[in-house]
Amino acid sequence: MMPMKLICIGDSITYGYGVNRSQVWTKLMEIKLNVEVINKGVSGDTTGGMLSRIYYDVILNNPTHAIIMGGTNDLIWNVNIHQIEANLAAMAFQIMQNNIIPVFALSIPICENIVQKKWGFIGRFDNINSDIIKLNQWIRTFSENYNINVINFYPLFYMDDGNIDEKYYIDGLHLNRYGHEKMAEIINLEDY
């Protein structure tokens, strides 16, 4: 049996914007699972950009599994949610057609009050979390229909009172090292 090799394709949350390379969730997952993990996150990328690089960044690297995590930047740029869904579906289908096991990772919540100050110039953040919830729900439903595993990062960053725990964020959008540790903690080999 071929040893597990994971490629993670996504945006700045996958890349680990603002965090030391050794502290990014993908690196922590590699150490925890004792498998090869290749981080193909690109800060600022959209699902359209991810789809355009799926062949070179995922398929040509011949992994056993590919974790797909994206859509938040699309929502910030006001891309139609149906286009985001189509891009994610196309990625999953291309991955499966190449005998690679897809896994979706659900997007994390955004601290709307903090992120507007730092990143307000790039797009809209009002009601971003309700849009992320809608997209995450679509990913769950799509994944159930195609028997694709899902890693649910979204609830990790909420406190018991229903507020987002800001201590895990650098700027309301990106996670600090403790947020990345929290993501790596919930990933298990049995999930794949």
TrEMBL record:
User: Does the keyword Coiled coil belong to this entry?
Assistant: no
- Record's Gene3D superfamilies? SGNH hydrolase
Q: Does the keyword Protease apply?
A: yes
Q: Which Pfam families match?
A: Lipase_GDSL_2 (PF13472)
Q: Which GO terms describe its biological process?
A: proteolysis
List the GO molecular function terms.
peptidase activity; phosphatidylcholine lysophospholipase activity
Q: Which UniProt keywords apply?
A: Hydrolase, Protease
SGNH hydrolase-type esterase domain spans which residues?
8-181
- UniProt protein name: Probable tesA-like protease
Instruction: State the species of origin.
Output: Clostridium tyrobutyricum DIVETGP
Q: What is the lineage of its organism?
A: Bacteria, Bacillati, Bacillota, Clostridia, Eubacteriales
